[in-house]
Design goal:
It is a single chain. It is built from two helices and five strands. It is of the alpha+beta class. It has one domain: 3-Layer(aba) Sandwich (Cytidine Deaminase, domain 2), CATH 3.40.140.10. It has a five-stranded mixed beta sheet, with helices on one face. A hairpin with a 2-residue loop joins strand 4 and strand 5. The radius of gyration is 13 Å and the shape is elongated. The two termini are 25 Å apart.
Amino acid sequence: MHVLSVMIASGLNQTIPNHGALSAYADIFAQVIQRQATSSGFLHNHPSGDPKPSAADLAITREIVAAADAISVNVHDHLIIGRDGVASFKTLGLL
């Protein structure tokens, strides 16, 4: 199962975890806006086990960052978790 989750921080910089699968941007940004987040981080898994970002991962991340910028929310990182390790968009210079 492929799962996307978001960690958001309120105006008080308190981390507010969401442990559910988020399947649409509306779900992601509804939580960000509802909780008056100032920053966010995203993570998802690769069931294949290889955490290397795909072309689709890169495109979706660009769209998420653009949407977050539009509402003045910082995206700190996007992590991909796989059996073979973890990939950080920030560490890879992709964010």
